[in-house]
Amino acid sequence: MLTECGNAPGLQVLSRDASWITVRPVPGSIVVNLGQIMEVYSNGTYRAPDHRAVVNKEKERMSIVTFRYPSPSLPVGPSPQLLTATGHTPLYQTLSHYEYLQSFYNRKLDDAVPFINTLKL
Fold first, then answer.
1. Pick from 53, 6, 3, 54: which is nearest to 32 by CA?
2. In which region does residue 110 sit, left (phi positive, over 0), alpha (psi from -120 to 50) or beta (all else)?
């Protein structure tokens, strides 16, 4: 989550045409990055944005990043309830959160295939 602090932009997201777009701060707003696990849970309904933090040359800002992770044994895969309700087939494999993190941290950073695509069936 990102809350506006002092009107100093620093977050960018990658658009579909592969250009970086600055997320302009809106007073009183909160930006939520759902992440790749939520993309998998939602079976692709919610997309995890490619994003980056950039330096603001005009104004100083501070960023504090925090992550919340489920139990290592929790299954990471398309929600069975969502699949039943929509009638869709799963787009992603199901693995434990531990296996998900192992795959994420052991991937090759120079691999041209985005990590989320390695989870697709």
1. 3
2. alpha
- Amino acid present at 75: P
pLDDT digits (tens, 9 = 90+) for 34-71: 889 999 999 999 999 888 888 877 778 777 777 778 89
18-24 long-range contacts, CB within 8 A, separation 24+: 20/52, 22/54
Cα–Cα distance between 94 and 84 in angstroms, integer?
Answer: 16
String of DSSP letters for 44-76: TSSPPPPEEE---SSS------------TTSEE
Distances (CA, A) of 77 to 12, 35, 59, 73, 80: 27, 13, 41, 12, 8
